[in-house]
Design brief:
With about 350 residues, the protein is of the alpha/beta class. The protein has helices at about 5-15, 45-55, 65-80, 80-90, 100-115, 135-145, 160-175, 195-210, 230, 235-250, 275-285, 305-320, 335-350, and strands at about 30-35, 125-130, 150-155, 185, 220-225, 260-265, 290-295, 325-330. The chain has a domain at about 195-330: 3-Layer(aba) Sandwich (Rossmann fold). The structure holds ligand L6N33NVT and fe (ii) ion (2 copies).
Length: about 350
């Protein structure tokens, strides 16, 4: 007996529709890659809009609103959009007129769609942002319009944090809250210790080492920071970053004294996770560490925080303090290794919805 594909079976069962009956769509599975977001442009107003949405998120800034509102609206949104827009200009994809985070996330989704085509089932892959465009709400609606009654949300963060993973899920569930017919939803878990991920990171380090004219004294794994208080309140982000770092070092077979984990992108005056990358870059040359290789395992795509902050600001700081050689390992991005990781996570989480076991 030949199995009838699910969509056909649904159509046959429905038969002729009564007058005025809403259209019946084929049943599909949606995969929605969710990234952080990036401004629509580098001008003052685009930057301000993006920063306002980002920094109004209570998952990102937990300061009481009565205190935060005047700081944000009267100070930060006045002084930050201008200089940050200039920073974005340095890394902007002028061909497409968008930030690299957007270009890379789109490419990841397009390539993933090609890779999942052979899985069986009718799968639609799309991508959306937590802040800015394309919005999470609009892309969930687009998946629903194409008949997706099951959606796998994939927050593109290997390490879980309430400030990233949870707020991405919150935004998606906020969109579902207004729907009469909600899709069934799964949220992919973080993959900070997945062998596919650690192996991909190790292979990018090895590939980079093969191109260098020096042997690094130190491999520095830099993760985006969060306030230290989030760790004390129970956010697992710190521990997951440390585990990723340890597994990467063990896989590479590097000694403990030639490897360290740092945290970057501190914002505001509160204490964040330490050691700070920028301080470390200023101190290492004085400790005899003159040649460094930096990797940013927490970012699935190169962006402002890697290209401008690590490869720009931190490299300059290191050299200024007596460093001799600095190299940066690009993120996994839309490389075959990067797609292998996303595909492994997605295929695992689609089990029962797509592939051989799908009903
Ligand atoms: C102010 C608090 C912030 C927290 C907490 C935070 C956590 C956090 N962020 C990322 C990933 C990215 N952040 C990016 C930019 C960025 N981050 C903050 C603030 C916090 N992030 C701001 C204000 C900005 C915008 C730039 C600036 O004004 O400094 C980006 C880059 C986006 C791009 O368009 O290139 C990424 C990616 C993680 C993973 C994280 C916690 C785990
Ligand atoms: Fe950030
Ligand atoms: Fe920890």
């Amino acid at each position: 007996m030949t199995a009838i594909p699910r969509a056909d079976a649904t159509f046959r069962a429905v038969g002729p529709l009564p007058e005025g009956h809403p259209a019946v769509k084929p049943r599909r599975v949606g995969v929605l890659l969710l990234n952080l977001g990036t401004p629509d442009g580098t001008d003052y107003w685009s930057m301000r809009r993006y920063l306002k949405e980002f920094l109004s998120d209570r998952r990102v800034i937990e300061t009481p609103r009565w205190l935060w509102w005047p700081i944000l609206n009267l100070i930060i949104l006045t002084v930050r959009p201008g200089p940050k827009g200039k920073d974005y200009e340095k890394i902007w994809n002028t061909e497409r007129d968008e930030g690299p985070l957007k270009t890379i996330t789109r490419s990841q989704a397009e390539q993933l769609a090609g890779r999942l085509a052979g899985l069986g089932g009718d799968i639609v892959v799309d991508w959306a942002m937590r802040y800015g465009n394309p919005s999470t709400q609009s892309r969930i609606q687009a998946l629903m319009d194409q008949g997706c009654d099951r959606i796998l949300l994939v927050p593109l963060y290997p390490q879980y944090s309430a400030a990233t993973t949870a707020t991405a899920a919150d935004k998606a569930f906020e969109a579902l809250a207004g729907m009469r017919w909600q899709p069934a939803v799964r949220v992919a878990p973080p993959w900070h210790d997945d062998p596919a991920y650690i192996g991909a990171l190790a292979s990018t380090v090895r590939a980079k080492l093969a191109t260098l004219d020096f042997e690094p004294d130190m491999l520095v794994a830099s993760f985006h920071g969060v306030p230290r208080d989030y760790l004390l309140q129970g956010d697992p982000y710190h521990c997951q970053c440390q585990k990723t770092g340890r597994l990467l070092r063990e896989t590479l077979g590097w000694d403990k004294d030639r490897f360290m984990v740092c945290f970057q992108s501190r914002f505001g005056n509160a204490e964040w996770l330490k050691p700070y990358l920028i301080d470390t870059m200023g101190e290492l040359p004085g400790r005899g560490v003159k040649k460094v290789l930096v990797i940013a395992p927490g970012f699935t795509a190169d962006c402002l925080e890697t290209l401008e902050e690590i490869e720009g600001e931190n490299m300059e700081h290191f050299m200024h303090h007596g460093g001799e050689k600095f190299a940066y390992v690009p993120c996994l991005n839309d490389s075959p290794e990067g797609l292998d990781v996303i595909q492994a996570v997605v295929e695992r989480e689609l089990m029962g919805w797509a592939g051989p076991a799908a009903r």
